[in-house]
Amino acid sequence: MDTPALGHEPVSGPTGTSTTQPLLEVEGLKTYFFVRQGVVKAVEDLSFSLQAGEKLAIVGESGCGKSMTALSILRLVPDPPGRIVAGSIKLEGRNLLDLPDSEMRKVRGNLISMIFQEPMTSLNPVLSVGHQISEALMLHQSVSRREAFDKAIEMLRLVKIPEAARRAKEYPHQLSGGMRQRAMTAMALACNPQVLLADEPTTALDVTIQAQILDIILELQERLGTAVVLITHDLGVVAETAQRVIVMYGGRKVEEASVEEIFENPQHPYTQGLLAAVPHLASISGKEGAAGRLREIPGIVPALVNLPQGCTFAPRCAYASDVCRNEYPPYETKRPGHMAACWHSDKVEGGRHA
Question: Which of these, 9, 50, 309, 353, has the minimum number of CB atoms within 10 Å of its CB?
Answer without folding.
Answer: 353
